[in-house]
Specification:
Blueprint: H1 5-8, H2 20-27, H3 31-45, E1 50-60, H4 89-102, E2 106-111, H5 118-132, E3 137-141, H6 149-155, E4 160-162, H7 169-175, H8 181-193, E5 197-199, E6 202-204, H9 210-221, E7 229-234, H10 251-264, E8 269-272, H11 281-289, E9 294-296, H12 309-319, E10 322-323
Parallel strand pairs: 1-2, 1-9, 1-10, 2-3, 3-4, 4-5, 6-7, 7-8, 8-9
Helix pairs in contact: 2-9, 3-10, 4-5, 9-10, 10-11
The structure holds S-adenosylmethionine, 6-(5-methyl-2-OXO-imidazolidin-4-yl)-hexanoic acid and iron/sulfur cluster.
6-(5-methyl-2-OXO-imidazolidin-4-yl)-hexanoic acid (DTB) binds at residues 56, 72, 110, 141, 162, 164, 201, 231, 233, 236, 273-274, 301-304.
Amino acid sequence: MHTQTCATTVYTPARKIWSVEEVLELFEKPLMDLLWEAQQIHRQHFDSNHVQRSALFSIKTGGCSEDCKYCSQSARHNTPIEREPLKPLQQVLAAARQARDKGASRFCMGAAWRNPKEKDLDAVIEMVSAVKALGLETCLTLGMLKPGQAERLKDAGLDFYNHNLDTAPEYYAEIVSTHCYEDRLNTIDQVRAAGIKICSGGIVGMGETRRHRAGLLVQFANMIKPPESVPINHLVAIPGSPLANQSKLDSFEFVRTIAVARILLPESHVRLSAGRQEMSDEQQALCFLAGANSVFYGSELLTTDNCSPANDDELFERLGLISS
Ligand code: SAM
Ligand code: DTB
Ligand code: SF4
């Protein structure tokens, strides 16, 4: 008789698969208990006082075809941001040099595209090689990728690709109608398959519920391989955008979101991202205690202001944080 050994093999997942209910239980813990749990996990996987710094630069601003309600760069909203062409290589390199000299370790280049055209990709590939040659890690965020494009970026030496899921699957259609969650997941899969590291996170403070915040984090935690980098943005309310009048999320709820991300994603860098400028030094310190270990460093994000490097340097000094 032929025995099928594989039929009796018990598959044991290497990691826990999280349910939204379990994640909600974490969110509901007393804040001190949640912070303690997150901090212990953080210390098992990272140097507790180290924070990674990425610089952001918009290589192509405005005029985007998509209708993401939070975004200043959608051509469909009446925001103060004007459409600009793709920046020339020398301008990108000058910004990268400046970021490196100020102490950033990664240079993240963002473009307001639904997806890059092949001609655009040729120019971006040149940028990746040139920025890498400066000794910086490279990251791109260009929108959705078509088959073959991720491989081209990998060949150019790209380290990270940023593509956020932004919110829970069931809330996504409230925020964007011109593409869907499946499209986002599909691009993430292509990037992973090409061997590029993934940066994927989301935005809180867009009117979503705690269940939606839990649902977003569950998406990352249950991936076969979770993203290496998980940016948690607080909405920057853009005048003229549909979310212009959205009220700010309770600051402790934001800290909880960081702590839960740390517990669910013990090996990922959790980045305290957009919205940091509106946070007090004390809230930022709580976020680092909760397990955030990366920031955007530089006085600008893509189209909005960020904390000034001088303020960040002073805050890091006061907190005894070391960065690279
Ligand atoms: N077009 C590409 C895309 O959508 O992936 C890349 C650029 S897009 C600006 C990158 C990310 O920036 C978004 O997914 C979102 O998470 C974040 N973002 C954009 N506008 C924001 C805002 N007003 N507040 C917070 N985060 C924002
Ligand atoms: C991410 O998660 N946040 C960054 C980066 N990835 C591309 C973008 C933040 C943008 C904030 C609003 C603006 O400056 O336009
Ligand atoms: Fe376009 Fe990206 Fe802004 Fe959406 S988030 S409107 S895809 S630039």
